[in-house]
Amino acid sequence: MASAKILVVDDDPAIRNLISRYLSQQDYQVDTAGDGHSALERFEQFNPDLVVLDLNLPDTTGLALCREMQSRTSVFILMLTSEKDPKLGLKEGADDFVTKPFDLEELNLRIKAILKRQRTPVQTQPKSLVYGDLTIDPNRREVYIRGEIIPLSALEFDLLYCLARKPGRAWRRAELLQEVWDYEYEGEQRVVDVHIGQIRKKIEPDADKPSFIKTIRGVGYMFDRRTTERQ
After folding, report:
1. Whole-angstrom distance between the N-terminal and C-terminal Cα of the chain?
2. Could you tell me which residue ranges the OmpR/PhoB-type domain spans (predicted)?
């Protein structure tokens, strides 16, 4: 199997070269860019599986670049940020974030976890999940409300499907990180809260009073099967 292709976008040449050399040693195919313009050029030519993207660039923002890249392909985005609040990047569709300064081994673990979501489908195709007006098709990786497709990022779909395929189960945030992100992350678990908030805005009739994804106080989240019984 060919190694994954990773595009590293950072305006700091020292950071860019450090990440590039390290990931190359991990047997990834790596390309780099130092600004938004060259990043889009390399993106089109290199066709990466994942982009390590700095939030701050000289000619644009990582947020704008994230939106543009994901409008072209379903590429995974790992955001590099010096900000303590990861919500900006995650709300624009980034799959995960690493705060500077970061550890290269942690960066590699995050990348591996994201790329594992490209698993080969099993032979027996799972059935679509239908809860009232909500339909989740795991084969096409599409979500519909009353027949209208709802655009979700790859990670948002994985998180929703994880919850919906086991309705009534209360998931701790740490369990969702292990199940969906595929790593144990004892630090900032609010990344789960951010993505749940984004999903709610897209599928809930009222995101402030969610009916599908319920918050279980002191625990985490649960997909409520009783939603369909009340409709």
Report:
1. 47
2. 126-225
**Residue 14 pLDDT exceeds 60:** yes
pLDDT recorded at residue 121: 41
Q: Determine the structural domain holding residue 52 and report its residue range.
A: 5-118
9 contacts 69 by C-beta, under 8 angstroms: no
Tokens of 206: 């009222």
Q: Are 91 and 166 within one domain?
A: no
The whole-number average pLDDT for the span 137-145 is: 91
Q: How many domains does the chain have?
A: 2
Q: CATH number of the domain that 63 lies in?
A: 3.40.50.2300
In angstroms, the CA 174 to CA 155 distance is 16
> What is the C-alpha separation between 17 and 14, in angstroms, rounded?
5
**Nearest Cα residue to 198 out of 95, 53, 49:** 95
Span 62-83, average pLDDT: 86
The answer to whether residues 33 and 22 touch, using CB atoms and an 8 Å cutoff, is no
| CA 26-112-221 angle, 5° bins | 165
Beta carbons within 10 angstroms of residue 133's beta carbon: 16
Closest CA to 159 of 97, 210, 104, 117: 117
